[in-house]
Write a sequence for this structure.
């Protein structure tokens, strides 16, 4: 088993004790660029996708190409760092990696209900994953290489972009409340399915490769029953005191609740927008 002394250096190493701090200049500038230019662009793409199937399929697909190529870079770089010994903590099947798979599949799915369920998933859970990391950056700025920290921040800003596109395309909230709940439910079914798949993969990883620093207990979605190391606030304490079953159920419930809250936010925003539009129209007619 290799030791740290034998690991290969990263090409863009962060100095010892020089870990990136949240909201450093790069993160601030990147966020401003996305807020001013990228998010509005994806909002525009989402509106176009309502009437143009090319936007509906090609925008997620080409966005996904960027995610795939940067993820390949990350996988190769981290594996090289560990002397080509693969560590499963980088296996790309976390909540924030799901859009990479779903966006790739969307152009090839012929069933519109399934396709729209995937897009509803991204409108809710891609947005949650992106916002969670951008708002709580301490949990991800742990890489010893500058390029991997850059990759992490840009990746999660792109997740928010995909969330903006998906929520705009599905017109999330611009219906009666019952229709909004249907969209929430369809996206949440996809979420529950990928959570189950993640736990099955956790089990298979440990059964096939053992429980050690390489498998990290599997720990996909950070919910493995074999968790070698967990560093998620609150969930870490729950698991330590109440065990995996309670932690697994709590994790799933909290994210489902988060998706429901976000769906209601979309709904409220749409109602405010409609009310404002009607008010402007009424004023214009009175004049």
């Amino acid at each position: 088993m290799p030791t740290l002394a034998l690991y290969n250096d990263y090409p863009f190493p962060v100095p010892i004790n020089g870990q990136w701090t949240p909201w450093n200049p790069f993160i601030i500038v990147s966020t401003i660029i996305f807020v001013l230019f990228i998010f509005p662009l994806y909002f525009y793409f989402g509106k176009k996708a309502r009437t143009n199937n090319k936007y509906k399929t090609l925008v997620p697909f080409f966005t996904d190409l960027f995610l795939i190529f940067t993820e390949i870079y990350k996988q190769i770089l981290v594996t090289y760092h560990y002397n080509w010994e693969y560590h499963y903590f980088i296996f790309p099947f976390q909540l924030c990696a799901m859009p990479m798979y779903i966006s790739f599949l969307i152009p090839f799915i012929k069933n519109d209900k399934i396709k729209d369920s995937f897009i509803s998933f991204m409108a809710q859970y891609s947005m949650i994953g992106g916002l969670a990391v951008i708002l709580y950056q301490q949990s991800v700025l742990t890489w010893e290489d500058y390029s991997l920290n850059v990759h992490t921040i840009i990746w999660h800003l792109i997740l928010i972009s995909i969330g903006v596109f998906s929520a705009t395309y599905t017109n999330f909230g611009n219906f009666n409340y019952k229709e909004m709940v249907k969209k929430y439910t369809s996206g949440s079914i996809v979420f529950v399915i990928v959570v189950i798949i993640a736990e099955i993969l956790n089990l298979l990883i440990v059964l096939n490769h053992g429980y050690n620093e390489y498998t990290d207990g599997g720990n996909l979605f950070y919910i493995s029953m074999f968790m070698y190391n967990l560093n998620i606030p609150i969930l870490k304490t729950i698991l330590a005191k109440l065990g995996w079953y309670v932690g697994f159920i709590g994790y799933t419930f909290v994210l489902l609740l988060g998706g429901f809250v976000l769906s209601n936010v979309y709904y409220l925003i749409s109602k405010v927008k409609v009310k404002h539009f009607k008010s402007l129209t009424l004023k214009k007619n009175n004049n």
In short: The chain is about 70% helix and 0% strand. Helices lie at 25-49, 53-81, 98-105, 112-135, 146-169, 177-209, 235-242, 244-286. The chain has one domain: 7-226+233-282. The first helix runs from residue 25 to 49.
